[in-house]
């Protein structure tokens, strides 16, 4: 069954949305969208490094994404304006990655696949990385759920309950880095933020509690993957952008319904 | 009687700033006592509260909290993102999950029964403050800490809220530490008032503090005391937005002192 490229693509997409629903909700609640972008753009540098040193792809993307998460956490703790730091890191790392990629002949031709993803090229090894990373992050979120939600609601209330908001923030940053790193094959460096934000934003209108929002976002993500891959298969559209486009359409409908309610 | 919280020679500076926000503050609160901290904007009231709770690093001094002290805390200006869906019921279960009966009783206690299924962001200011208080009461606190709990409430709302606080104290025996701008209303409800301006400029019973020259110097240039302050309530502007130093209030154009 795994011999079929479409089956592998569906499994890869579902593995990713298993965790982007919940994690994306935190990204929306805590306004971490730009942080997700910065981490994601930086993974192109990771791809270039992996190719240059003939290392496994995910080692490079994971290493760079985690490094960016730690740098941002460190700089913002020292009182730097996070917005500016992220802007520098996001575009600096993307530019550096593109420059580095130009020195790697084998990467020059299929750079697009890493910018926008190529889910139809997902291999069995990719599936192991994707499902492994998604399971790890989902486990982390479930384990610390109450603490993470409390810290997202209000940091003072969290501190009064003995929760360290800085630690919860760092955990979310690292979780985000892992998801961004494993998503590079599926939607690519430029569109992973969309997979985090759009389903969660679409779910907001249907949800009355944080758990309902995370659950609805997961369902919307799954529908987007299936419909997007369907469109790609039958209409020949690019797979990653099709998935994101479907979720954007769902978001638009949710705005219309929610706006009336 | 042993203090719930005792602070000695407390100093706190903000990161990157030379001027300490608090310097040499001694503070204690005993069981079942209502203590109110008053002071102009920027006088370090919230910083004092956060230092007593252990939320900020001290430059010097120390804070001793009674072992196992249960604190119910209502912070200043709790803002909940509209992007975060949250019913009142779910909010009461953060971070410790509580049963429906317990949650319902806490809401009833603070005068907002039956709000469980409402969205937090759809509540009025007064309802939200009462929900915050209900949440603070859930772990059966020995000390309630309320940082400007009546911000954004109208005058009847403010009076009603302080009456509720007094009722809760009478019922549960919890001590109450409040920070407030509502000078006289809150002072009448207090056992002890601490007037803060970076340091403790005076403290004692409400009568003692309102008669102290240091207090008058801070709160009313030429004001004969708290009574006049109370009558200013409707026509002067408490500037909560600009957190610069200076006086707690400015007189409005229609201000008429009754003296």
From TrEMBL, chain A:
<feature type="transmembrane region" description="Helical">
    <location>
        <begin position="127"/>
        <end position="145"/>
    </location>
</feature>
<keyword id="KW-0864">Zinc transport</keyword>
<feature type="transmembrane region" description="Helical">
    <location>
        <begin position="85"/>
        <end position="107"/>
    </location>
</feature>
<keyword id="KW-0862">Zinc</keyword>
<dbReference type="InterPro" id="IPR037294">
    <property type="entry name" value="ABC_BtuC-like"/>
</dbReference>
<keyword id="KW-0812">Transmembrane</keyword>
<comment type="similarity">
    <text>Belongs to the ABC-3 integral membrane protein family.</text>
</comment>
<feature type="transmembrane region" description="Helical">
    <location>
        <begin position="6"/>
        <end position="29"/>
    </location>
</feature>
<dbReference type="GO" id="GO:0006829">
    <property type="term" value="P:zinc ion transport"/>
</dbReference>
<keyword id="KW-1003">Cell membrane</keyword>
<dbReference type="InterPro" id="IPR001626">
    <property type="entry name" value="ABC_TroCD"/>
</dbReference>
<comment type="function">
    <text>Involved in the high-affinity zinc uptake transport system.</text>
</comment>
<keyword id="KW-1133">Transmembrane helix</keyword>
<feature type="transmembrane region" description="Helical">
    <location>
        <begin position="241"/>
        <end position="259"/>
    </location>
</feature>
<keyword id="KW-0406">Ion transport</keyword>
<dbReference type="GO" id="GO:0043190">
    <property type="term" value="C:ATP-binding cassette (ABC) transporter complex"/>
</dbReference>
<dbReference type="GO" id="GO:0010043">
    <property type="term" value="P:response to zinc ion"/>
</dbReference>
<keyword id="KW-0472">Membrane</keyword>
<dbReference type="Pfam" id="PF00950">
    <property type="entry name" value="ABC-3"/>
</dbReference>
<feature type="transmembrane region" description="Helical">
    <location>
        <begin position="214"/>
        <end position="235"/>
    </location>
</feature>
<protein>
    <recommendedName>
        <fullName>High-affinity zinc uptake system membrane protein ZnuB</fullName>
    </recommendedName>
</protein>
<feature type="transmembrane region" description="Helical">
    <location>
        <begin position="174"/>
        <end position="202"/>
    </location>
</feature>
TrEMBL record, chain B:
<feature type="region of interest" description="Disordered">
    <location>
        <begin position="235"/>
        <end position="259"/>
    </location>
</feature>
<dbReference type="GO" id="GO:0005524">
    <property type="term" value="F:ATP binding"/>
</dbReference>
<keyword id="KW-0406">Ion transport</keyword>
<keyword id="KW-0067">ATP-binding</keyword>
<dbReference type="Pfam" id="PF00005">
    <property type="entry name" value="ABC_tran"/>
</dbReference>
<dbReference type="InterPro" id="IPR050153">
    <property type="entry name" value="Metal_Ion_Import_ABC"/>
</dbReference>
<protein>
    <submittedName>
        <fullName>Zinc ABC transporter ATPase</fullName>
    </submittedName>
</protein>
<keyword id="KW-0472">Membrane</keyword>
<dbReference type="InterPro" id="IPR003439">
    <property type="entry name" value="ABC_transporter-like_ATP-bd"/>
</dbReference>
<dbReference type="GO" id="GO:0016887">
    <property type="term" value="F:ATP hydrolysis activity"/>
</dbReference>
<keyword id="KW-0547">Nucleotide-binding</keyword>
<keyword id="KW-1003">Cell membrane</keyword>
<dbReference type="GO" id="GO:0006829">
    <property type="term" value="P:zinc ion transport"/>
</dbReference>
<dbReference type="InterPro" id="IPR017871">
    <property type="entry name" value="ABC_transporter-like_CS"/>
</dbReference>
<dbReference type="InterPro" id="IPR027417">
    <property type="entry name" value="P-loop_NTPase"/>
</dbReference>
<feature type="domain" description="ABC transporter">
    <location>
        <begin position="5"/>
        <end position="222"/>
    </location>
</feature>
<keyword id="KW-0862">Zinc</keyword>
<dbReference type="GO" id="GO:0010043">
    <property type="term" value="P:response to zinc ion"/>
</dbReference>
<keyword id="KW-0864">Zinc transport</keyword>
<dbReference type="InterPro" id="IPR003593">
    <property type="entry name" value="AAA+_ATPase"/>
</dbReference>
<keyword id="KW-1278">Translocase</keyword>
<keyword id="KW-0813">Transport</keyword>
